[in-house]
Design a protein that fits this description.
With 229 residues, the protein is mostly helical. Helices cover 66% and strands 5% of the residues. It has eleven helices and two strands; from the N terminus they run H-H-E-H-E-H-H-H-H-H-H-H-H. The chain has a two-stranded antiparallel ribbon with strand order 1-2. The longest helix is centred in the first third of the chain and has 43 residues. It is elongated. The protein starts with a helix and ends with a helix.
């Protein structure tokens, strides 16, 4: 009788293990189907080239345009610059992954969209893992001329849903990129060139009353929001 009871217990545990494995497999199947549906949906609504692709014709040598032959004309380099116009966060994520492979491309895309647009796209949630990628792109390529635009982007991202949670999920490398980004932004503010050395766009900002003070105030606010010491 004791042997039979032990066998029953073993059979019960084995059955429970099989049931758990079946549930796990079912969840995996559902996730894979959901992923496939997203992929299929993205193919159903491809990017409209007339809306999202701008072709720019750039001569091989812009300084030797005189005396060009017809062969020169046909051997011009065509550079296609993808102009993103996502209407949802899902479209942004798709385009970010599919078309923007390099850091400079991603940085320019963020500048092109700007803070208000990004804030609208991600008002519910930036999405797991994406916040870190955005911060890395900004940190690696930020320029003094883009300082105000980058600050506005950071402010918009900080106003998105579940921002604090997404910030806490940054990897160690992404957290370091975030600190590096703010170090660069602070340096740009304190080491701003003299009036003679300013870029034209910076001179316009310099002439605006309170422009620099507004930047400094925004930077200090963002340091707290992004929990940068």
């Amino acid at each position: 009788a004791l042997t039979m009871e032990r066998n029953d217990i073993i059979d019960f545990k084995a059955l429970e293990k099989e049931l758990q494995a079946a549930l796990t497999a079912d969840e995996k199947y559902k996730r894979e189907n959901a992923a496939k549906s997203i992929v299929l949906a993205s193919h159903l609504k491809p990017l409209e080239r007339k809306d999202k692709i701008e072709k720019r014709t750039v001569p091989w040598n812009c300084h030797t345009t005189q005396g060009r032959t017809s062969q020169d004309e046909t051997t011009e380099i065509f550079q296609e610059k993808v102009l993103l116009q996502p209407e949802t966060s899902a479209e942004f994520y798709r385009d970010w992954r599919r078309y923007l492979r390099s850091g400079p491309e991603r940085y320019q895309a963020l500048l092109q969209l700007g803070g208000p647009k990004l804030g609208h796209l991600f008002q519910t949630d930036v999405g797991f893992g994406l916040l870190g990628e955005l911060l890395v792109a900004l940190a690696d390529h930020v320029k003094p001329a883009d300082q105000l635009v980058v600050l506005e982007i950071l402010r918009s991202l900080a106003s998105t849903g579940r921002f604090t949670l997404n910030l806490s999920l940054l990897s160690h490398a992404e957290r370091e990129s975030c600190r590096d980004l703010f170090r660069k932004l602070k340096a740009m503010g304190t080491l701003r060139p003299t009036k003679e050395g300013l870029r034209q766009e910076d001179q316009g900002l310099e002439e605006q009353p309170g422009g620099l003070q507004e930047e400094e105030g925004l930077l200090q606010e963002l340091l707290g929001l992004y929990q940068v010491n």
